[in-house]
Design goal:
- This protein is α/β, with parallel strands linked by helices.
- Helix content is about 30%, strand content about 20%.
- The protein contains nine helices and 13 strands.
- The strands form two sheets. Strands 8-9-7-10-13-12-11 form a seven-stranded mixed β-sheet. A six-stranded parallel β-sheet has the order 2-1-3-4-6-5, sandwiched between helices.
- Strand 3, helix 3 and strand 4 form a beta-alpha-beta unit.
- The protein is globular and about 60 Å long.
Length: about 325
């Protein structure tokens, strides 16, 4: 059986990565739209309603409009924008967080793909709160760096320009007003009382991401060492292909370094725990275009269609 798939917004980085993942799949028939009609509501409506699955790789308002065009009750919509991530009527596309997330994805026709930074954050903070290691009132802070591909096509062109300005040679801090679009889902999905303090950097490499959550031991609900926390996270994600808790090393890795592009091109996420008895560091490493976007979207589609979750993905 071939599933009919439409990618609304195929020209963006997320849409292109999804399209590339389908090139070698014999179970997918792509519905295409000509360049001159890709913004035409009537043509888009026809494509959406012909599909078994439509991916939305669009700005928020365009994604909301696309959902309104769908009147086929059997069409599954998988939205990569921020528009629907905190709505109860939509499944949140991170099945590894728990069975309730997985089961909702299996039966839902509306699935919201997590944000890339939020994926790293949620992979750590959701189980910390769920397991009673941190209270939901813990004052979480997040430091994160990402490759420039997450900033969109215009930013990619700037970073890859031969005559770019010198400022693009350096990591650049942004969202300093604490209004980043991923904060809403970080708070809502993890069930936190407060939004975390979030400091993201865009850097001069194409894809990859590190999301770091520091913890003070004296603020935890339980007295725990870094190794204790690593072991509880390992048990939480045991035998999981998409979220892998790495062996414990007090330095984080054998040489004490972790590259942000370490998983570039892959569709899974790694978690590292390090530190000492007073201060603990937990880091999620992922590809912002893989488990942070396109890979997660395809994983959700596979689950919703009853296909092996890893089909067509790079693990």
């Amino acid at each position: 059986m071939k599933y009919k798939v439409f990618i609304d917004g195929k020209e963006g980085t997320t849409g292109l990565r999804i399209y590339e993942r389908f090139k070698n799949r014999d179970d997918i028939e792509l519905i295409t739209i000509s360049d001159e009609l890709r913004k035409d509501p009537n043509e888009r409506k026809k494509c959406i309603n012909q599909s078994d699955v439509t991916f939305l790789c669009l700005p928020d308002q365009a994604a909301i409009e696309a959902v309104s065009l769908c009147d086929n009750p059997n069409t599954k919509i998988i939205d990569a924008s921020t528009a629907h991530r905190t709505l109860e009527s939509w499944a949140y596309g991170f099945p590894e967080l728990g069975n309730e997330f997985l089961e909702k994805i299996k039966v839902s026709n509306r699935i919201a793909v997590p944000g890339c930074y939020a994926s790293g954050f949620m992979s750590i903070v959701y189980p910390l709160v769920k397991l009673g290691i941190c209270g939901n009132d813990y004052p979480f802070s997040v430091n994160a760096i990402s490759g420039y591909s997450g900033a969109g096509k215009k930013a990619i062109a700037v970073y890859e320009s031969d005559d770019r300005e010198k400022k693009y040679d350096s990591p650049r801090l942004y969202a300093m007003q604490q209004m980043h679009k991923h904060l809403k889902e970080m708070k809502a999905i993890a069930g936190l009382k407060y939004q975390p303090l979030f400091s993201p950097y865009v850097c001069d490499f194409y894809s990859g991401m590190l999301v770091t959550i520091p913890l003070f031991s004296n603020l935890l609900k339980k007295k725990m060492s870094p190794l204790d926390i690593r072991n509880q996270l390992f048990d939480y994600y045991k035998d999981n292909k998409f979220v892998r808790v790495m062996p414990y090393d007090e330095k984080g890795t054998a040489d004490g370094f972790l590259e942000a592009n370490h998983l570039s091109g892959y569709d899974y996420l790694e978690i590292y725990v390090s530190g000492n008895e007073e201060r603990i560091n937990i880091v999620a490493c992922l590809d912002n275009l893989g488990k942070g976007a396109s890979g997660a979207a395809i994983e959700c589609m596979n689950i919703a269609l009853g296909i092996e979750p890893e089909k067509g993905l790079n693990l």
